Amino acid sequence: QQADIGLIGLGVMGANLALNIADNGYRVAVFNRTVVKTSEFYEEAGRLKDQIIPCETLEELAKSIRAPRPIILMVKAGEAVDEQIVALTPYLAKDDIIIDAGNANFHDTVRRLAELGPNDPTFVGMGVSGGEEGARHGPSIMVGGTPESYARIEPVLTAISAKYEGESCSALLGPDGAGHFVKTIHNGIEYADMQMIAEVYGVLRDGLGLAPEAIGSIFEKWNAGPLNSYLIEITAKVLAATDKKTGKPAVDVILDSAGQKGTGRWAAIEAQMLGIPATGIEAAVAARSISSLVKERSEASKAYGDLGTAKLADGGQAFIDALEDGLLAGKIAAYAQGFDVMAGASKEHGWNIPLATTARIWRAGCIIRSQFLDQIAAAFEGSEGKNLLLAPAFIERMKTGSASLRKVVAQAALVGLPTPALSAALNYFDGYRQARGTASLIQAQRDFFGAHGFKRLDEEGDFHGPWSDVG
Ligand code: NDP
Predict the structure, then answer these.
(1) 439-470: CATH architecture
(2) Cβ of 32 below 6 Å from ligand 1
(3) Atom 7, ligand 1: residue with shortest CA distance
């Protein structure tokens, strides 16, 4: 019996996705560049062996799948994807679909689609989030492609995806690069969310002098409230863990230098290219870069000392409550930015990304999954494309939440603790709600040195200022 679907790349994600597909009653033919991994994977598949066809060549893989064939590529992003497409295409027909499920840059997805000829297979760009566990038991799946291609792969994607109260977390979000773009912004938001959590951890650790275990208990408590999310849940667990070698809290023996594979940076770059503020994401990317300057930070720490800053004066429950509330406010602003970038890209590329659906398929399966995304989905219902900060439900929350965020950022600044993402979120909020900003001065300066002209408040047209009068 032939397979329903094929999968290339039995690394962490591919192997788990293949098992997920098999577990959901579909037959899957698999191939891996390093052939021995295919047989190892097959031997370890246990009860799912019957649903798996291990293949040693791409030709064998193509022959093992019932036409028209859907084939998922889950290999290293970048050149490996191009190489696999070139190697695979000779064995495929026009009706077949190659689905790139890796973390591709959406520009590559658009290019790959354009490079395929009229008789080549169709190409679909699909973002998958949820890590190893998600891939195995239900990820969030963000698809970019035609409705016809999606209709063909929808049954298997719905089956393997995460479910939020029974609803599948897989959706077609637009044509060509839309799925990979949404995945990129998902990762950018993930960076901002993680950074804000780390900043709050820093205030609790260095501002209030709390031990990891105590901080973990605070996060555990918060996870039962409005901050309830996978990231808060794992933060509590991480802080409770003990290092086996030293007996110290695990977090205390880990080098404070964060890795990054690039998707967060792409999100910041795309926001900049679109001219849409995503300062929470940008701050989070920059914070990871600063974290990598381990030696320099040590040198600067010696050079500057503590600059006379001290521990936070206000360490009571009221301040801990403000941290909870402020973190939520920071998240609202950062998510508002992320969704705004998607709305902007959607307009720019004519993608029509449904924002409410995007929030819905992030409610389960992915790394930023949370209850909060259900409220975001509700806010976008009927007001697609409008900034989240203008949704009535969020206006109410930000009215009180911003006061807490302000308190946290101000207190942290006074004692010299960095809160780049939380501060960026607060500044975005304050700038966004300022009806009369300060760009009037920028326009005057631009006109002064470059005769760029400006618009007046009281008259239509372009004007220049009386700068020669003042030298
Ligand atoms: P792994 O490193 O575990 O596996 C990489 C896979 O790619 C292996 O099967 C490897 O084959 C194959 N590969 C690498 N280079 C080539 C090449 N030139 N030609 C053919 N095959 C090649 O990676 P992951 O499973 O973690 O990641 C796969 C994709 O999924 C990436 O795009 C990643 O960004 C994305 N992703 C990862 C997530 C995660 O949490 N890990 C989450 C969401 C997406 P071989 O065995 O021969 O080396």
Answers:
(1) Up-down Bundle (1.20)
(2) yes
(3) 75
Per CATH, which fold does 5-176 belong to? Answer: Rossmann fold (3.40.50)
Atom 48 of ligand 1, nearest CA residue: 34
Lowest mean pLDDT among 124-128, 253-257, 314-318, 392-396: 314-318
pLDDT tens digits, one per residue of 189-200: 999 999 999 999
What is the spatial distance between Cα 213 and Cα 245, in angstroms, rounded to a whole number? 18
CA distance 325 to 31: 48
Whether 43 is in the pocket of ligand 1, judged by its Cβ within 6 Å, is no
Q: Do 171 and 361 form a contact (C-beta atoms < 8 A)?
A: yes
102 belongs to an annotated ligand binding site: no
Do residues 124 and 144 touch, judged by C-beta distance below 8 A? yes
Quote the ligand 1 centre to 413 CA distance (angstroms): 41
> Is 10 marked within a binding site?
yes
183 among known catalytic residues = yes
Burial level of 294, CB count in 10 A (0-12/13-18/19+)?
exposed
Annotated ligand binding at 452? The verdict is: yes
Beta strands 97-100 and 28-31 are: unpaired
Q: What is the pTM assigned to this prediction?
A: 0.96
In the structure encoding, which two tokens stand for residue 220, read together? 């555990």
* Centre of ligand 1 from the C-alpha of residue 233, in Å: 27
Q: What is the pLDDT of residues 413-448, one digit of tens each?
A: 999 999 999 999 999 999 999 999 999 999 999 999
**169 pLDDT higher than 80:** yes
Asked whether the domain spanning 439-470 has the same topology as the one spanning 184-432, the reply is no
> How large is the ipTM?
0.98
What are the extents of the domains in the chain? 5-176, 184-432, 439-470
Query: pLDDT grade, residue 382 (50/70/90)?
Result: confident
* Model confidence band, residue 314 (pLDDT cutoffs 50, 70, 90): low
Burial class (CB in 10 A: 0-12, 13-18, 19+), 463: exposed
177 CB burial (10 A radius; 0-12, 13-18, 19+): buried
Quick check: CB of 102 below 6 Å from ligand 1? yes
Domain range 184-432, CATH architecture: Orthogonal Bundle (1.10)
Specify whether 282 is catalytic. no
Q: Is the CB of 9 under 6 A from ligand 1?
A: yes
